[in-house]
Amino acid sequence: MNWTGRRLPRTEDPALLRGEGAFTADLAAGARAVRFLRSPFAAGRILSIAAPDLPPGALLVTGADLEGVGAIRPELFRFNYRAIAQPVLPRERVHFVGQPIAAVVAATPEEAEDIAEAVLLDIEPEEAVVTIEDALRPGAPTLHAEAPGNVVVDGTIRHPDCEAAFARADRIVEFSLRSGRQNATPLEARAGLAAHDRATGRIRLTASCQMPHMLRTGIAALLGMAEADLQVVAPDVGGGFGQKMALFPEYPLLVWLARRHRGSFCWIEDRNENLIASAHSRDQIHHLRAAFAADGTLLGLEADILANTGAFSCYPTTCGVEPLMALAEYPGPYRLPTYSARARALATHTCPAAPYRGVSRPVVTFGLERLMDRAAAALGLDPVALRRRNLVTEFPHVTPTGLTLDQASYVEALDRAVEAADIPAFRARQEAARREGRYLGLGLAVFNERTGYGTPAFAARGMGIVPGYEVVDIAMTPAGEVEVRIGASPHGQGLRTALAQLAADRLGLDPSRIRVIHGDTDRTPYGWGSFASRGAVIAGGATQLAADKLAARLRRAAARLLQAEPDSVTLRDGAAWAGEASIPLTEIARRVHQRSEQLSDLGGFNLAETASYDPGGTFSNACHVAEVEVDAETGHVRILRFLVVEDAGRLLNPLIADGQVHGGVAQGIANALLEEVLYAPDGNPLTGSLADYLPPSAAEIPHIEIIHMETESPETLTGAKGLGEGGAIGAPAAIANAISDALSPFGVDIAELPATPARIRALIRNAR
Amino acid sequence: MKCPPFDYHAPRSQAEALALLARHGEEGKILAGGQSLVPTMAFRLARPARLIDINRIAGLDYCRAEGGRLRIGPLARHARFERPVAPGPTGRLLARAAEHIAHAPIRTRGTFCGSLAHADPASEWCCIALALGADLRVLREGGERLVPAAGWFQSVFTTALAPDELLAEASLPLLGPDWRCGFAEFNRRAGDFALAMAVTALRLDAAGHVAEARIALGGVAGTPILAEAAAASLLGASPTPDSLRAAAAIAAEGFEPTEDAQVPADYRRDLVRAMTRRALEGSLAA
Ligand SMILES: Cc1cc2nc3c(=O)[nH]c(=O)nc-3n(C[C@H](O)[C@H](O)[C@H](O)COP(=O)(O)OP(=O)(O)OC[C@H]3O[C@@H](n4cnc5c(N)ncnc54)[C@H](O)[C@@H]3O)c2cc1C
Fold first, then answer.
1. Which PANTHER family did the record assign (chain A) (predicted)?
2. Does B238 share its domain with B127?
3. Which of B175, B206, B233 is the last residue of a domain?
């Protein structure tokens, strides 16, 4: 029986659906409540922070109290990175509205908020740098002395023959695009609970986080405490999407409180804090210039990438994560003979940027796929044919930035999508609708998604902390169940189910006998977490390796007990078989542990193995098709159809894969049409509630059709590729292309996302 | 996002509620559905020292046709109106609009009178009250007055209601079959407050000419407003696509739009033009 590849319902879901999940706030009973005081100014000097008369038991903590506590200062050793330090609580200056500047502790969150309101903050406001344009303006205020001109990352790639390609071009296509700022908006905002254990003096931090091991390392270093005295637990986590990777100041402060005051302290972030002060992303401007031959062949590309990365640099990925991802991955799935680019990160007095599902690639794909449609229009070619001409067809393929594209189905996925979309029929509908004054449009986005990359990829970025590998400990209990302990930390990706399926096949066991243990630094091996579409590939590969080692142990023991050759023993249906003879795995497990005198010479007294996996990476690919109707009077966009052809290699569990595509596409639709963090010119956030920052509701998300292809990766152990981010990467570009197609009678071209109704109306009005 | 401290009263009769209002005046607030008041308190934008919860007062959840008017008590919830509460154009118009108010859970708690007392500029009920000419019966300890909708709305979230007063009833005319009512609104997500809405009511005479016309706009200024010139332009003739379009254009130019970072003034005018025309066309299509 093959478990891998089946649409097994997720073992995670029943508890969540019954409301029996245990999120950080569910575990906080008895803890004292912490409320952070946040800067009301984007830029300013702190003159004083005066406490009101505190009720008994209440505390006010300011930067002055944190003697000896370090600053958050991640490193990058390349690309002209300027390391800037983010204090846990600042003493001198504030750098964005929402920055924590003090913490109030009280018995209840209500009381803490009452006290926080009464604290007298004396801050002298200073001129704020808010936008990319502000940051680059000559004479603009400098945020950090370490970064003159507010440039914190400046990476370039220059290919000497790029200029020649442009000189040779029949057609040069050039344009700028802008991507609005976004917040990942997990359903559960951030939350932390730090508890002191009187018996051992240890602290347990329960936090809604994606990288518990990294959080532990980072906090212990900041506080100068023994890492062994800190346990970090990620319980049920209500989504992260990258936002919960970072080491935020709030968490070390909670641990500091628990140590100093030997108690339990809890902070449950509210939605307003999450919207203004957690982490933002995607605030970018790209300028593109591409050289084409008359037949549509792409000859060269130049890109100038500007990313507004906010006031500080997120730990551990740094503020380089967005611009450098764009720098490295602009070539996408296309054959690009020559490429020159510059990518800068700019510091501003806004909430710091952090990775968010897709990291820059939604913007890159928006750029590339608008480029393909614009070039087709300029050259009078069919946009599908233009793409087909330029897509990579031979693998492995090395991109101009040195990435190796493994076996994929770029052209095949495009063809499948075009066929399923039935473009001729659509064009007929579009014609008929136009005669009635209705505007339908169809847009494509072809892209690849770099996933499952290990330490080499992160090391190439020059990161001071290099994530990438995963370690898995596997053990069979004396009763014959299997425990798989993973360093990765899933929070909605269904890894407990998918990894059990993988291990079940290697061990000949039912997945219900397998427990996947994660999210607890005391109970799992050091590892990185769930981000960058890596769980199935890397934790999956390590699980497979560990399960194979355990299977080998079981076969050797079985061979002894069945008096057969180890090579002739197979594991299936919960037993070890040699020909017709068999022995249940439960019996082997019992004997290894309890009758070790018979078997310990075969490899020890238990059934525990460890394996690690650190792959180079693999590219999944997809083609998204959006069909939209634009209301030309209101600018409203309705999605009539959304189709995804997804190729993520071998699918461990297609049901989970579908869920990843659905969620990603929903966030991509939000990116294309709805969500945007806005600031006033003085740096005050204008989108501090979900009435102003607009995540889609079910009503705004259409049915999403998915066609899976399975081009197995030769680069990964399981043949699987990651797909966690693809939905979010392709949807914005497909929708932007569809809107541009719909409004082509007006000559409207979408170059800014989200394409809000007000923006679309302005484009139509100006075009008329 | 936790409410500041407050005292809580749960009167069992209207008289008791009025006595509490008389005593606590400025610092007291009526709690009806709580769907606007509680979020505002959570954001600490409102800090009433006392809440006077009227939900335990029996008999206030009525909604009945009487003497040619629809009488709506202070605890009649939005959800009540999702299906026509009375035959004829008024009940149908209310049902058309009800589905646009927030989401189902909010509609099961929020009240018609609470919307009028709260006076959000984008409230559907406020816009309809102005368009149809609602009368608002207001009580205070030892006093009563009737305020016409035209005199009710003063500015954003501000009405003619005094701090010691209770909105005890809203009544709407039950329009006859010669009336055609239309409703259209635009919002970015289902259930959001509208960026613009239009409520239209035309009375057609036997010849099919417009004998009376009312057009109200919501969500576009500090209060709902009447588009009087646009309405007047339709009088005395049979409506045609062109005359509706022209009326919509007049409506779009005849007011000072509120502006914000997401909705520039000229976009607000675009929406008013589109919503007015669609409401008018919709009212005549059926
Ligand atoms: C997410 C969300 C979306 C929403 N969308 C919409 C929408 O699209 N359209 C819309 O119209 N509304 C919307 N609302 C608001 C909702 O309709 C409220 O229910 C309504 O505005 C207020 O009614 P209430 O009964 O809940 O009043 P409450 O919240 O209880 O009270 C509101 C105010 O009115 C006062 N008040 C209430 N009743 C009386 C009375 N009888 N006499 C004197 N004073 C009184 C209160 O003291 C308070 O000041 C939305 C609300 C939410 C939370």
1. ALDEHYDE OXIDASE 1-RELATED, XANTHINE DEHYDROGENASE
2. no
3. B175
B41 plus B119 within the same structural domain: yes
Is residue B58 domain-resident? Answer: no
- For residue A635, list chain B residues with Cβ-Cβ distance below 8 A: 267, 270
Let me know whether B135 and B230 are in one domain.
no
Quote ipTM for the complex: 0.96
Of A109, A686, A692, the CB nearest to B2: A109
DSSP state of A539: I
- Residue B225 CA, ligand 1 centroid: distance in Å: 19
Q: Is the peptide bond before A685 cis (omega within 30 degrees of 0)?
A: no
Contacts of B189 in chain A (CB under 8 A): 674, 694, 696-697, 699-700
Q: How far is the CA of B51 from the centre of ligand 1 (A)?
A: 14
Picking from B44, B190, B264, the nearest residue to A758 by CB comes out as B264
Whether B95 and B151 map to the same domain: the answer is yes
Contact A472, A539 (CB under 8 A): yes
Q: Report all structural domains of chain A as residue ranges with CATH numbers, in order of start.
A: 31-126 (3.90.1170.50), 359-452+617-767 (3.30.365.10), 456-613 (3.30.365.10)
pTM beyond 0.95: yes
Q: Are residues B96 and B224 in the same domain?
A: no
Domain termination residue (choose one: B154, B175, B196): B175
**pLDDT digits 0-9 by tens, A651-710:** 999 999 999 999 999 999 999 999 999 999 999 999 999 999 999 999 999 999 999 999
Alpha carbon A589 to its chain centroid, in Å, reads 39
Give the per-residue pLDDT at A1.
Answer: 59
- B3: nearest CA partner in chain A: A110
Put simply, the answer to whether A757 touches B4 (Cβ < 8 Å) is: no
Residue A169: which residues within 8 A CB-CB, separation 6 or more? A291, A292, A293, A299, A300
Domain count, chain B: 2
**In which residue ranges of chain B is pLDDT below 70?**
286
Specify the 3-state DSSP secondary structure of A15.
Answer: helix
Residues B98 and B213 both lie in one domain: no
Residues of chain A with Cβ-Cβ distance to B260 below 8 Å are 686
Question: Any idea what the CATH number is for the domain that residue B205 is in?
Answer: 3.30.390.50
Amino acid at A580: E
Tens-digit pLDDT profile for residues B57-114: 999 999 999 999 999 999 999 999 999 999 999 999 999 999 999 999 999 999 999 9
Structural domain boundaries, residue B146: 6-52+63-175
Alpha carbon distances (Å) from A283 to A68, A280, A365, A662, A693: 35, 8, 15, 24, 15
Rounded distance, CA A450 to CA A365, Å? Answer: 13
Ligand 1 touching residue B114 (CB < 6 A): yes
A118 touches chain B (CB under 8 A): no
In sequence order, the β-bridge partners of residue A343 are: A155, A305
Is some CB atom of chain B closer than 8 A to the CB atom of A697?
A: yes
Q: State the Cα–Cα distance between residues A500 and A511, nearest whole angstrom.
A: 5
- Find the CATH number of the domain harbouring B11: 3.30.465.10
B253, two tokens: 């130019």
Residue A678 with chain B: CB contacts under 8 Å: 261-262
From the centroid of its chain, how far is CA A289? 28
> Are residues B109 and B39 part of one domain?
yes
Q: Does ligand 1 have an atom closer than 6 angstroms to the CB of B139?
A: no
